[in-house]
Amino acid sequence: MARITASLYTSHVPAIGAAIDLDKTHEPYWRKVFDGYEFSKQWMKDHKPDVIFLVFNDHATAFSLDMIPTFAIGTAAEFMPADEGWGPRPVPKVIGHPKLAAHIAQSVIQQDFDLTIVNKMDVDHGLTVPLSLMCGQPEAWPCPVIPFAVNVVQYPVPSGARCFALGQAIRKAIESYDEPLNVQIWGTGGMSHQLQGPRAGLINKEWDNAFLDRLVADPVGLSKVPHIEYVREAGSEGIELVMWLIARGAMSDIAGGPNPKVAHRFFHVPASNTAVGHLILENG
């Protein structure tokens, strides 16, 4: 059967994608950010999965205020990089895994989570920036990717507890798939940042690092943190961190297995006006 071998967590700052695309990664400002992913790029080569289940949020590209799914799974054979107003990023198209995606949708919906099935979707920086950080600039991404979009843009948004429970349902779905696939689950977005209003530019290093600590050691307690704490402590866009709880909920220790191994941890401020966080957990 398929199994989740690791979970990966990273910010998906759009300016990081621009720095990669415009060959600015070696500039002094950006070098500090990209140094934190050097280990991860080698780790990715050494732990190449068969499929990545990538949790991200769309930034009014595939979905507008006309239609806002809370949870949407991409079941198409391929997904093109989105034009976010200045042309698509010069990155490879994303190859999907329709068979596994359909299986996950079937299983998770039967576990009473309502998913939106998406058979056509362009994917924006929320998905492509994490792939670039982990894989560099290849001619093709190293494996198929299942995009899983979560609404953390327009309230009401799902709770941390709901996301954590959804991760557990996704793990059960993947483990019931009858091909021996090595699957990684990625949670993206965050960390603390606010893009508008009197607190624009807010970054809370102490809260971010406490979040990383609890993500490793106390995920159940972390899943109970209310929305207002994310907004108060991490800014209006800090709510993106609930997506990390989907990936964490899918790890084996939550189902009674051994504790995960921390393969890598990185935190840096700022990247643009955002705190960048990154963590790799390997299943025991």
Explain what this protein looks like in three dimensions.
This protein is α/β, with parallel strands linked by helices and 284 residues long. The protein has a single domain, classed as 3-Layer(aba) Sandwich (Protocatechuate 4,5-dioxygenase, Chain B). 35% of the residues lie in helices and 20% in strands. The chain has ten helices and ten strands. An eight-stranded mixed sheet has the order 6-3-7-2-8-1-10-9, sandwiched between helices. The protein has a two-stranded antiparallel ribbon with strand order 4-5. Strand 9 (261-271) and strand 10 form a beta hairpin. Helix 4 (98-110) crosses helix 6 and helix 6 (160-175) packs parallel to helix 10 (242-249). The longest helix has 16 residues, at 160-175. The protein is globular, with a radius of gyration of 17 Å.
Could you state the order of secondary-structure elements as H and E? EHHHEEEEHEHEHEHHHHEE
Largest beta-sheet details: 8 strands, mixed
- Beta percentage is 15-25%
Helix-strand makeup class: alpha/beta
Low-confidence stretches: none
End-to-end Cα distance, whole Å, is 17 Å
Computed over alpha carbons, the radius of gyration is: 17 Å
How do the strands of the widest beta sheet line up side by side?
6-3-7-2-8-1-10-9
Shape: globular
Q: Remind me, CATH topology?
A: Protocatechuate 4,5-dioxygenase, Chain B
Number of helices: 10
What's the average pLDDT?
Answer: 97
Proportion of residues in helical segments: 25-40%
Q: What is the CATH class name?
A: Alpha Beta
Number of domains: 1
